[in-house]
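FW: tagging you since you asked about this chain on Friday. Here's the raw sequence from the shared folder, copied in full. Didn't touch anything.
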Amino acid sequence: MSTVIAAMITAVVGILGTLFAPLLQQRMTARQRVEDALTEDRRRRFEERRAAYTAMNRASRQFHTLLKDALHRIRDDVYTDEDRVRLEEARRDYRDRYAEAQMIVPERVLEASRELNTVLAGIDALAKRIDRGLQSDGKTAADALLELKEAEPRLSAMRRIMREDLGIFD
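HL: got it, structure written out here
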């Protein structure tokens, strides 16, 4: 009887194995798909952040550079309408990149970008007042250039925080 029972148990296990193998395979395949989807989602979010950081860094530096150039030209009394247009385009591009980044970057990156934005926006407004002869506080383009130097460490800090968020450490 024990040989018959052993044979029956072996047959039952074989049948159950045959029946459950496709179910087990389906479950393993579904689990792998979920893991693949999560990996792809993480990769996509990383690429979005990297693209936002690249665009924001480029736009910030371009706006800073053109703002500095504008102040030099205002100081030297050679500021033209073309210069004004280029600066305004850079300011708008910077504003757009800043707004896009606000939707996908971590708070510590936003904090660094806000600190930079405060300086750049303030100097831009001052440059426009100086250009129009409307500065009420007697500030000159040379004064504004000195104040603009506050943006440089903020640009570096923002770039460093962005790089750290992307896993790049020097």
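FW: The radius of gyration is 30 Å.
HL: agreed, and The first helix runs from residue 2 to 75.
FW: great, closing this out.
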